[in-house]
Design goal:
Number of helices: 44
InterPro entries: Kinase-like_dom_sf, NACHT_NTPase, NPHP3-like_N, P-loop_NTPase, Prot_kinase_dom, Ser-Thr/Tyr_kinase_cat_dom
Region (Disordered): 1-58
Radius of gyration: 35 Å
Structural class: alpha/beta
Biased composition (Polar residues): 20-29
GO molecular function: ATP binding; protein kinase activity
Number of strands: 23
Domain NACHT: 118-272
Distance between the termini: 25 Å
Strand content: 5-15%
CATH topology of the domain at 605-809: Rossmann fold
Shape: globular
CATH architecture of the domain at 605-809: 3-Layer(aba) Sandwich
Amino acid sequence: MKSSIRKLRRRFHRRDTNKDGTSTETGDTATGVVELLSAGDQEEDQSAVDDGSSHQDGVNAVETKVDAQAQREVVSRLPQLATYDSQRPRPIDVCYSETCKAILDKIKAWAAKDGQPQIMWISGLAGTGKSTVAKTIATWAADEGILGGNYFFSRDMMELRKSSHVIPTIAYHLSEYDPSLTGCISKALVERNGHVLNQEIAEQFRRLIEEPLRRTYAPTITRKRTLLIIDGIDECDNPKDIETIIHCLSSLLSSPDVPNTHIRILFVSRPGRHIHDALYAHNQLLIRLSVEDFVKTSDIEDYLRNGFSKIGRRDWPSKDDFGALVESCGKLFIYASTVIGFIASGAALRTPEQSLQIFLNIKSNDALDDMPLKQLDDLYSHVLLEAIGAYARINSKGMVRFRKILGSIVLLRDHFGVSSLSKLIEEEEHQIWNMLNRLSSILIVPPERNPETPVRFLHPSLLDFLIDKTRCDERFFIDVSCMEVYLFQRCVDIIIKGLKGIVDEEFIPVMCYVCQYWGYHLEKVQDENAQMVMKLDEFVRYHLLKWFKFARVLLGSGRPLFRCMEVAQNWVSNYDIELLKILESTLRSFRVLEDGLWGDLQSTYDAARSKYGHEETRRGTCHPGTRVAVLEEIMDWATSESMGPKIFWLHGSALTGKSAVAMSIAEWADEKGILCGGFFFRDIIESSDLRLVVCSISHDLASFDIAMRGPVVEALERNEDLRSSEDLELQFNALIAKPLLLLKQDSCPILLIVDGLEWCEGATELLTLFFTHLSGPDTSHIRILITSRPTPNICNAFEEYKGLHKSVNLDEVSAMVVRQDIETYLHDRLAQIHETLSLSTPPDWLDHTNLDSLVNDSRNSFLRAEYALRFIGDSNVRNPVDQLRTWLAKQSRGESFENMYPHWVAEFGAPHIQVLDDNVDEQFNVHALREVDNRPSQLTTYDSHQPKTMHVDVSLETPPETLPSENDSLVNIPNLSSSILNIDNRDSHKKFGGFGVVRRAHLLGMKQVAVKTLQSRREGQYQQQITGYEKRVPRRFLHEVSVWCGLHHKNILEFLGLAESSKDGLPLSMVSPWIVNGNITEYIKLNPSTKRLPLILGVAEGVQFLHENGIVHGDIKAKHTHFRQS
C-alpha cells in the first residue's frame, strides 16, 4: 500500500512537457487525487500516509468533509422542532418583561455558580408558565455561552412525544458546543448509517454521551460550564423511557472516574409520580423548585396589562374589573392568556366589555388549595358553552359532531388540517370551520384559505380537561376508549377502500395517516370489543398483505409499519390465539422481506396509481370508452385458460398510450384479485437496474399470496447475499420463477405487468429470463403483459421467441378508431369543465364544429388533447369559451403550443410534445467543426478499473498544436438529433458545471444518455469572435468537440455524437452515456466498504493517458468523479 502511494507521488510530482515545449506542474492534482482517501480505509492505509504531512492533511480534510456530510444526513432524521428556538406551530413565549424574575434569578444563580446540586427540577401545574420559564433560561444560557444542549417535548406533535431521539439530539448539541467531544460523538452518530438512532436509550447514552465524556476526560483540564435543559418530560409518550433518561443523565454526575462537575441538568415538568420517583433516586444531586411558589400577583397583572394594550383600549377595563380578573387568574398564566385571546377573537360576535363580563361571572366556590385546577376548568367550560350554547343536549346531533371533531383533534397522532380531517371523520368542511372559529381562543385555528394547515391546542391543559370525566361537563367529555375505537375503524375502512383503484392526490395525506397509525388507535382500546376483534380479523386475513405492499410505497419504507403490527399482535394476544399466530408469522416474514429485498418503490403499481411522488411516477388509465378493442383483447387473453402464449407484448411508438392501457389492465386485474405484481419503468436510470426490478417484482409476489411469500422468504433466509448477487438468473429463478410456479390457481390465471420496457438497459436479458423460465407448459396459471416501444433490441428479442408470445401494435390501430376515441375523450371532458370551475354551462357549449376542430387539432394524440383541455379549463382564467376560441385560432396559424405557452407548460409539469422532423440536416457544418482555438474546455474521462468504471470531470488547458488536425475525420461525427428522445428540461434534474449544463435524455434503441450544452452566458463571449456562417456554433464548443472526439481510450468516456432540437429548446450539444451511480462522495457514502486505493489508481491511469497526449487537467475532486457499471 505504501509503495503504491509513493509510486503515485513520483508519477504526479513531475514536470510534464507539452508538445509545444511548455511545461506544467501537476503536484496540485496529485494532492487532489490522494484526498480521495477517507475514513473508511484509515486504519488499513495509515502507513501509506505517514511519510508526508501534506498527504495526511489532505486525508484529514476529506475525512472531515465526508463525516460532516454523513452527520448532516443523520441529524436530518432528528426532530427539527425540538430545540428551544425552533419555530413551532404552537410557539413557546419567553417571560414578559419583569415577570417571573424571582424564579429566573434563582435558576440562573444555580446554573452559573459552583458548589450547587447539579440537577434542578422545575415543577408546576398546567398553565403556570413552566415552558416559558424554560425557554427564557435557554435563551439566557445561549447568550451566556453555557447552553450545551436542550430538548423541548410537545404532546401535540408526534415527533416531539417520542423518547428515542432525546439522547441523540442532546449529544449532537454537545458535539457542536464542546470541540473536544465533536470527533467521538460525530463518529458514533454516523456509524452504520446512524444505527444508533434505533438503539435502546441506555445504549444511545453510553455511545453518544458517556463514552465521549470518558474518552476526552483529562484531570488537568477544566471544562466550561455546560447546561442541559429538558422541558416537558411529562409530555413524553413513554413514562418508562423518561425514567431511563433521568437515570442515565444523572449517572454522569455521580461517576467516580469522570466527575463531570461542569454539567448542570434542568428538568421541567408537571409533578408526576413517576418523574418524582426517578429524580428523587438521586436526591443528593437534586434541587426542586415549584413554579407556583414564585408566581406573584404582579406577574399576572403585568401580563394582562400587556395583553389589553394590544386590544387598543387604554381606559379599559376598570380598576375593579381588572382586580377581579387578576384574582380569577390566580397563578395560571394560561388563564390570563385565554381571556385575552377570547376577547380579541370575539370582536365580531360581542363587544370587549361583553366578553370580559363572561369571565367575571365565573365563580369558583371551591378552595383553590383543594382543587388547584378548578379555576381553569371553569374557564374552559365557559368558553365551550359560549361556542355551543348553554342549552345544548348531550345526545343532540350537534353535540355528537362537536365531540367527534374535538375528540379527533385530541387523539390523532399527527395533526390534520380541516380538509383532511373532514375526509377522515366524514364531516363537511364548513361544519368543522363553524365549530373551530368559535373556539379560536383555546385552539390555534388557521385561516380558512389554508385548509391543510393543522389545527392545534393552544395549551395541553385543554386536552387534559376534555378527557377527564371528573373535571369536564359530560357534554364535552371525550371518552378516549370509545373515540379510539371509532378512529381505528375509520382507519381500517379507509385503508380497505384505498387499496382499490386510483387514489386521488388530495386523499394522500389521509391515506398516509391511516396506513401508519391504525395500530396506535388500536393500542388505546382498553376493553375487549367483539366488533373490534371482528374488524381486526377481517383486516388481517384479507387485507394485511395489500396494506403492507401499498403503505411501504406510500411511506417510502416498511419499517414504520412494523409498529402497527406489533401493537396488533400484543392486543389480540388476549382475545384470539389463531389470529395472533397469523400476525406473528406475517410480521416475521415482512421483516425478512424488508431487509432482504431492496426494490424500487416508485416503480410499483401502487406508486403509479396513487398519484404522488415525481411526475414520472404517475400513470393514468384509459378514458372510459376508449381503447375498447385493445383492452378487451388483453382481458380475454389474461383470463383465458387455453394453452396459448403466456406473454403478451403491447407495443407502439411514443405517445400511443401504452402505459394508459397497462394501467387500465392493472386496475381491472387488481379489482379481480389477479394482479400479482408489476414493474412500471420510469425514464430515470435507477429504475433500469435489473436487480432492483427482480427484487421489486418479488416483493409484490410475496405480498400477493402467502403461498408465494413462503418460497421468497425461504430463499432470502437461506442465502443472505441473494439480493446483491451478480448472478441475475439465480436471483430471478429463486425470487420470481419458483414462487410463481409453486402457486397453482384453481380459477383465473394471475397477471404480471411490465410497463415501459424500453427504459430498461437490460431489456433483452429480462425478456430472455421471462421466456426461458415462465413460458413453458407448467405456466398455464401465469400471464405476463409487457409494453414497450419497438426498439431494435426488444424487437429482436421477441423475434427470437416467436410463437411464445402474442402481440398488438398500437400504431396499426386504424386512424378512424383513434379519432373516435379522442372525440369521446374530448366530448366527456369538455362537458365537465364548467362544472369543475363552478360555472354555469352555456347551452351551445359543445358545438359540433368546435369539437370537430379540436379533434382535428389533436392530430390523433391523446397528449395533445390533454394539453388543449388543460388550457381551456385553466382555473386562473375561468373562461372556457374564450380559451377554446383562442386555442383553435392560434393553432390554425400553425403556431406550436410549446412556443405559445412555455410558462404554462412548465407550471403544469407537462412533457413536451415531440414531433420528429424528417428534414433534420444529416450533416453538420464541416468548416465549423474544424475550427478550434486554445480556450479552456471541459472533458469527462473514465477509468474502467474493475469492478466499476469511473469518470472525472476536468478542465483542459490544451494548446492548438495538440488538438486533432484537420485530417482527423470530423465529418463522420454521428448526428443523433433524430434519435434523441425525452430530453429532461426540468431545472431540478439538470447538472450544472462551470462551463456547461448537462441534461438527461434517451437515445432511441439504446439507453439513457447525457446531453451537454455550453451555458449561454459563456457562449455569448465566444460567439462574438465568429463571423459568417459559422456564427451558429461557438468556438469553444468546436474546441471541446475536437478534443473529445479525438480521445480514444478505455479510461475515457466515449463520445457518441452531436444532437440538437429546436422543438425541445436544445442547441447543438454533445452526447455521451449517462452516469448511474453518482459522484464518488455519494457512492462511497452508500457503499462505505469501498476501497479507495483502486479508485485512485484508476484515476491516475486516465490522467496519465491525457498527460502523454499533452493534455493537462486542473480540477480533479471527489464530486467530479463518478462511477458506472462496467
